Fold this protein.
Amino acid sequence: MKYAIEHGGVGAIWLADSEDVPAGHVLYTGELPQNPIWDDAIQNIREKTQQELDADQAFAIVNEINQEAYTRIIAIVPEHTQRNMTARGLEITQKLVAGDPLTQDEIDERAAIQAVWDQVKAIRAAANTMTSDPLTYADPASRVWP
């Protein structure tokens, strides 16, 4: 017997020896489609539409792009360094707001922090462009990174 989870897509389909339908499941005796999904409207399994397949693909591409952006950012500046840079940038900003002059070391430090942050922002901007139209960037070779 074939059974399918009743809500939110076909999370599981399995064969069982029992004629009893497990609670929360529906007995499905037809051939399973290539891309099955549970349809609440018809209370049965159906083939996904092209729009649903495209949405699944877009979701996967967005995840790939965001993971690549994260990997590139972490290679430039690890998370703990990002936190330290943010804290140090706040200290320098507070000094400026108070009207205190910056030392040359602080000016250099501020410029170095900004240079790294500009690289991070460029990667995020590229990722945002790609994720705004993910199917255009299905091929990883089409993804241009700064």
Q: What stands out?
A: The longest helix spans residues 104-132. Helices lie at 50-76, 79-97, 104-132. The longest strand covers residues 2-5. The two ends are 53 Å apart (CA to CA).
